[in-house]
Amino acid sequence: MNLVDLAGAELLRRVFSYSPTIDTIDLFDISLKRDGRVFIANFDLIDQIPDRPPEKWKKFNRCRVGIYCMMISNLKISGWNMQNLASLSISKKDDRYEVRVVGDSLEIGFICQFISLIGPTVYLDGE
Q1: Which residues, listed in sequence order, are joined to residue 102 by a DSSP beta bridge?
Q2: Residue closest to 25 by CA, chosen among 60, 81, 65, 69
Q3: Residues whose CB falls within 8 Å of the CB of residue 116, separated by 6 or more in sequence, listed in order
Q4: Verdict on whether the full-model pTM lies above 0.85
Q5: Segment 35-75, tens digit of pLDDT
């Protein structure tokens, strides 16, 4: 499943003329909430920035998006580093979604009943 297929992806579809891939992401943070069994993850798209940005977005070289997942189950998290390059996969099975984030030293997996996109936002990374 592509990011543009998720609920809440209207802005993403407006600022990108193509569907950004999630083959390589840099996972920035995760958050868990017991109320609603919520998992939130924010990540940067690697080497992909909006090609149709609004005028108010000035200089930027990074694009951050996130996923908001409710009613999660079977959560497994292993590993965490200063930089978390990984691949994100989202697949729909019946009325649930399977989400996996897999990198060299990171693995996250769970099932959820609802998933939506957060963002995108852009920023200037001065590496």
Answers
A1: 87, 107
A2: 65
A3: 6, 7, 8, 67, 68
A4: yes
A5: 999 999 999 999 999 999 999 888 899 999 999 999 999 99
2 vs 75, 78, 81, CA distance in Å? 22, 24, 26
53 phi/psi in degrees, rounded to 5: -70, 155
pLDDT at residue 127 is higher than 70: no
**Domain assignments of the chain as residue spans, ordered by start:** 3-123
Under DSSP, is residue 35 helix (H, G, I), strand (E, B) or coil?
coil
Return the exposure string of 81-120: e unless at least 16 CB atoms fall within 10 Å of the residue's CB, then b: eeebbbebebeeeeebbebebebeebebebebeebebbbb
Instruction: Scan for tokens 């099975």, then name that residue.
Output: 93
Task: Collapse the DSSP code of 50 into the 3-class scheme (helix H, G, I; strand E, B; otherwise coil) and give the result.
Answer: coil
